[in-house]
Amino acid sequence: MVSVPLPDPALPPPVLSERRKTRQLMVGSVGVGSEFPVSVQSMTTTVTADVNATLQQIAELTAAGCDIVRVACPSQDDADALAEIARKSQIPVIADIHFQPKYVFAAIEAGCAAVRVNPGNIRKFDDKVREIAAAARDRGTPIRIGVNAGSLDPRLLAKHGKATPEALAESALWEASLFAEHDFHDLKISVKHNDPVVMVRAYELLAERCDYPLHLGVTEAGPAFQGTIKSAVAFGALLRQGIGDTIRVSLSAPPVEEVKVGHQILQSLNLRPRKLEIVSCPSCGRAQVDVYTLAEQVTAGLEGLEVPLRVAVMGCVVNGPGEARGADLGVASGNGKGQIFVKGEVVKTVPEHRIVETLIEEAMRIAEEGGDTPAPGPPTRVRPNSSGTRGDTA
Question: What positions belong to coiled-coil segments (predicted)?
Fold first, then answer.
């Protein structure tokens, strides 16, 4: 029998690949680039000019763990609201600009942490790069070049015939080169497409040809279920290669759901500290309990638990004891009862109707005692240093 060495528990959890080396930049208080954790973004769905509603939604996103938030700015009223929103938000605010170049300057002047520009639909954008670079440099404001398949520069559509990976990458690299001509390099790039295969290839091309941080996203990914699958597949394919520095899961769903999915993707890849994780069997003919209901009830009862805890809810005598024993907390169910495991030891046996309440009680006890490891803190932020939607689902 071949001996496989066990992982050292003192070492950080393994990841699939080292991060691609990038330039580093600061988006407000959040570091972006290969030296910082991959950050989770979302976008407000409120009318930005409604300051109170927008700040309320930002507060909800902040509570859900959002690192950076983007707000739409399609009108002058929205631009006028940016300064107050940027000042009062607890997380960095990015202004999302389309069509009108004047709003780029308004967002920079308002003190937004960064500005997203879409070169494909801002009038005569290339002619404005010198002025934008100067204004952004003066205020220390990074720029995200956000290329989108649905609004690609007409010149590139004519050249490539459609929004191919090559067209998306070419658009982004061309705009980045214009900023570089004016010695402005505080750039982050995104090249979004609704097809994960096209999107992944576009980012691979970018990663080969530049060292700017990359913001990942499958644009118009769809309703919650479909969008989650598309985003998880695409992000996994890229993060597996170390590609990606910020992410946004674009869903036709409340933005808080985007943040939850984003965190879960990163936790699954050990790119964020794992928090609550439910391990449950898919059920089969061997199961002697209603595993579906047990897992749903335990998940609901532990919602919001912040300690890193793996809970196994098992209903099969084949794999149940092993999975329950290997988790921090678990149950192996059968014959109308459940054996409760804590750190591999059976601590009690309870009737089936008490399994859920017992697991929740034990989880809360572990949480109160702090578990074996401290609960993960807020997303990593550092102080800046001298070196350092309405119609838009991009």
Answer: none
